[in-house]
Amino acid sequence: MHLRKKIVMLVVSLLFIFVVVHIHQSIVTDDDPYSIYKQKYYLDGLSHWYNYSGESDLNGPTVSMDNPKLITKIRKKFLLSPSLHIEPYNLSFPLLYDTSMGQSEMILSILGDQKEGFFVECGALDGETRSNTLHFERHLNWSGLLVEADPLNFAKMENKKRKAYLSPSCMSTKPYPIMVSFKQDFNVGKISDYPPGYKEFGYVDVQCFPLYSYLLALNRTTVDYFSLDVEGSELDVLRTVPFEKLDIRTMSVEFVHVKEGKNVLRKFVERKGYVLHSEVIRENNLANDFIFVKSSVDAEINSRLL
Ligand SMILES: *[C@@H]1O[C@H](CO)[C@@H](O)[C@H](O)[C@H]1NC(C)=O
Ligand SMILES: *[C@@H]1O[C@H](CO)[C@@H](O)[C@H](O)[C@H]1NC(C)=O
Ligand SMILES: *[C@@H]1O[C@H](CO)[C@@H](O)[C@H](O)[C@H]1NC(C)=O
Ligand SMILES: *[C@@H]1O[C@H](CO)[C@@H](O)[C@H](O)[C@H]1NC(C)=O
């Protein structure tokens, strides 16, 4: 009798512990801030585009921006072709006419509703949310290149059926390719201070290339609009650009996180042959951008106005 009682007590306690552990686990998974990093579409994209194991390491100061092996590597592994024009967009807000926070409109006021231009957008996010270039693509038949480092944003962007090249990579802050540890954080993710190989949730190693290398891979030297929004690395990215070899006609550059300050950024770009056209500012840090126009383009526009 006594033994039986003990066994019953034991079974009841075990059941109790089991239930408690189970409830605790379900609470933990429901509240798991990292659950978005456990979804299949994300993990598939991550292992496909961000797996560098089978590759030769073409990084560092000895690899020039126009190294033919580097250009081939970008073409093979880091550029997805545009969706076909007959393929419908898959947007969350298809009725929103202009997703940008004023940048698209400002650029178009300069370029005069130009059709079939070419853009580069760096920090492309999911290709829709506050996209600076979707408007050009949808309504003026432009194409371009969308560069996004964060694999979660990139996986979302793939779904949107943009009619532009997509690259799961980051723009290098050095005039040569580098590998970085990228801190994921939707619209405010950025290159972290950790060395590549840092293994924490929400950090991922990402391959970066200089802007010039992407353009060589695309056989292109003219860019009608370059949108740069990379949460603080803007000036470093611009320092890598051989402006004399390229024809970048207009740019929007976020200035608010540049550590050297907005005036240093402005002076640098002006010295490269640009005039500051305007600033696009929206509350709550939704936009803090300089709009630059290449001096020759600016002169052309002014002579047309006369
Ligand atoms: C990366 O790719 C290699 C083959 O190139 C494969 O063996 C490995 O499992 C992949 N790693 C991940 C995390 O998917
Ligand atoms: C859009 O541009 C592409 C080339 O990029 C061209 O083939 C197509 O005919 C254009 N579509 C329209 C509607 O102008
Ligand atoms: C459209 O996007 C959603 C995610 O927003 C995705 O689940 C769906 O598969 C996409 N559809 C197509 C046809 O790509
Ligand atoms: C660029 O040119 C190379 C060599 O001619 C070609 O293989 C490649 O498909 C071209 N790429 C694009 C995006 O036009």
Automatic annotation (TrEMBL):
Residue ranges occupied by any Methyltransferase FkbM domain in the UniProt entry: 121-275
SUPFAM superfamilies in alphabetical order: S-adenosyl-L-methionine-dependent methyltransferases
Record Gene3D superfamilies: Vaccinia Virus protein VP39
UniProt keywords, alphabetically: Signal
BP-aspect Gene Ontology terms: endoplasmic reticulum to Golgi vesicle-mediated transport; endosomal transport
Cellular component, GO annotation: endoplasmic reticulum membrane; Golgi apparatus; late endosome membrane; plasma membrane
Signal peptide: 1-23
The organism's place on the tree of life at top rank: Eukaryota
Name the record gives this protein: Methyltransferase FkbM domain-containing protein
Species annotation: Cryptotermes secundus
